[in-house]
Structures are given as structure tokens and as C-alpha cells.
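Board notes, transcribed. Complex of a protein with calcium ion.
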Amino acid sequence: GKGHKDLLSPDRILNVAHRGASGHAPEHTIVAYQLAKKMKADYIEIDLQMTKDGHLIAMHDETLDRTTNGTGLVKDHTLAEIKRLDAGSWFNEAYPDKAKPDYKGLKVPTLDEVLHHFGHSANYYIETKAPEIYPGMEEKLLKTLEAHRLIGKHAKRGKVIIQSFSPESLKKIHALNPEIPLVTLLWYENEQGHITKRELDEIKTYAIGVGANFDRIDRAYVQKVRKSGLLFHPYTVNEKPDMKRMLDWGATGMFTNYADRLTDLLKKN
Ligand code: G3P
Ligand code: CA
């Protein structure tokens, strides 16, 4: 509940707005992040990619194709080129029932722009995507966070959480700054999710939590993670019955495209 000051307390359920309020507005746009705040999400989730000229931008895919009117790899385009693209019209076309004229022509934001826009009024749950194709991504991320005073001695603990599917990327960040809370992401494709005590102990050497796809885990999995002392944040949980089940099993928060639904559910608990 809202009574807990410490964002990282295991008693606090974190509502993480996956790519912003991406069930309602074009993902990874300022508008989607604003809506997430309005829906009382605890965190804005931001996926990072890096442009040809070394700017960190908020985008899920390594390619421009799905969420803009551009094509090709992010890493082959400069920020100036990406800024000319429309990051909203695809949503109107894909979801006519949710379309809004205002979404047309929305721009791809840089990480710096997002942090400038929301400052200390939001918490950020940031993912290093494809770090193996973006050398220097981690250093750039920490420099940007420092410039906005979102990490370091004046920042509130938990203001920023960094997540990745790459343990190497998280370990690099941990070596640069061991104070930043990190969450390691796991993905179980067709198999039932399993995790060993040994794996959890290894994760605990650098991270405070684990994230996994909610549809391949069970109560025993969640409780094993929780007993090890790690937080557990399943993704991407969009339906209320699934949200309820995750909470019942012991999840300490979750990623959702519908922060409004989770806010509503938590109000009733
Ligand atoms: O970061 C948690 C979840 O977002 C991982 O999946 O592909 O949506 O980044 P993805
Ligand atoms: Ca993500």
C-alpha cells in the first residue's frame, strides 16, 4: 500500500507501467508515461536502445519498424533521423478503438528528455536492451542518471531500478555503482519456469530482484524466489484475475500495460 515509504520494501506492491500506459497510448511516448503517472503507477518502465550517434532512446525493439514509420536498425540511424519519425500513428492503425488524433506525430523520446520532463516526480524502471550490440550503454545510462541527480547520495533509494535480461550488463552496472537496485530478467519460452537455490544465490550477489514471464511460473517458483530474499516482479500482467493470482502467490509488484487496473485492484485490497 501507499503507507510504505520504502519503494523496495517487500511489503510494498509496485505497479510498474510497462512501456508507459501502453494499453491505452503508444508505448514509450511522453504521453504514455504521463498517462501512467495519472493512473498512479509507481514506476514508468523504459526500454533503452542506442542511436548511431550514441544517444539513448526509449524504444522496445532494436528496429524502428513496429513502432514508427521508419525502417531498419536503431543503431544504423542518428537521433536526428529518428526524431523525424512518427511514433504514434502505428498505434491508431493497430488499435482503432483506442486511437486519438493527438497520437499522430508523437516523437521518440530520448532518455534525457524523459528524465527532464518528469524529473523527481516519477520513479524509473529502466531496461538495458541488447547491451551486447551497444558498447558503452551502461556508462552512458549512469552518466545520464547522475546528471539528473536520480542516483547518488541525494537520490531516494528505489527512485531508479535497472533491469536486464543480460546478467553481464547488470554486473557491469553493479561494478560501476553497487548502490543501484538491479533486477535480473528471466524468460521461460515453452518450458515451465524453474530456478535453483544456487541460481538465486548467484543473482543475489548483484541484484535485489527477479522478473519473469508470469505465464510459465507457479506458486512454488514465486515462493522460492521470495524465500531467498529477492523481490519478484512478473511481466506482463494485464488481466485482473492474473494480477490477483500473482499477488496471492507472493509477487512484490508487476509490469502491466494497464496500470489503472492494478491501481484499482490494490485500492480494494
Ligand atoms: O522488462 C520487463 C518486460 O518488459 C520484459 O519484456 O520484452 O516487454 O521488455 P519486454
Ligand atoms: Ca522491458
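The chain has a mean pLDDT of 97. The first strand starts at residue 14 and ends at 17.
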